[in-house]
Amino acid sequence: LEGTLGYQLQGSFPLSLTWNTFFMGKGNKKENGDNSFSTYVELAYPFKIGSIDMGIATGFTPWESVIYGTDKFKFTSVQLHAAKSIKITDSFSLPIFGNIIANPHTEDIHFVFGITIE
């Protein structure tokens, strides 16, 4: 069971903050059986470059987390997002996106590409 709170600033600086905490679950237990209350916090900022929707985000665990494999405060995500709808015909466009997501804590990187179905 995970709870999430999120807020996005309005106006010319639409920064968003999301706080996610696991409250229950067998996979969220420390070795001694206590709940680790695994928490992930993310700051994200959307922007545009020409006709491409972009976004940057960073996330971290503020304390020890069994779910995220951290023993204290750690940055666990740095992300760059891009999305664009490519016009195929007058009545059909292909909405594509790509993400580059790095995890500085695990020294890992992922490339995600896809199509958005609306």
Topology, element by element:
Blueprint: E1 2-8, E2 16-22, E3 39-49, E4 52-61, E5 74-89, E6 92-103, E7 108-115
Describe the 3D structure.
The chain is an all-beta fold and 118 residues long. The chain has no helices and 7 strands. It has strands at 2-8, 16-22, 39-49, 52-61, 74-89, 92-103, 108-115. Strands 1-2-3-4-5-6-7 form a 7-stranded antiparallel β-sheet, with no helix packed on it. The protein is elongated and about 60 Å long. The two termini are 28 Å apart. The model has no long low-confidence stretch (mean pLDDT 92).
Distinctive features:
118 residues; mainly beta; 7 strands
Counted by DSSP, the helix tally is: 0
Radius of gyration: 18 Å
Q: Identify low-pLDDT runs.
A: none
Q: How many strands appear in the DSSP assignment?
A: 7
Range of helix content? under 10%
> How is the largest sheet built, in terms of strand order?
1-2-3-4-5-6-7
| Strand composition percent | over 45%
Q: What is the SS-derived class?
A: mainly beta
- N-end to C-end Cα span: 28 Å
Biggest sheet details: 7 strands, antiparallel
Overall pLDDT level = 92
**Order of secondary-structure elements:** EEEEEEE
- The oligomerization state is single chain
Q: What's the overall geometry?
A: elongated
Question: Can you summarize this structure?
Answer:
This protein has strands spanning 2-8, 16-22, 39-49, 52-61, 74-89, 92-103, 108-115. It is mainly β and 118 residues long.
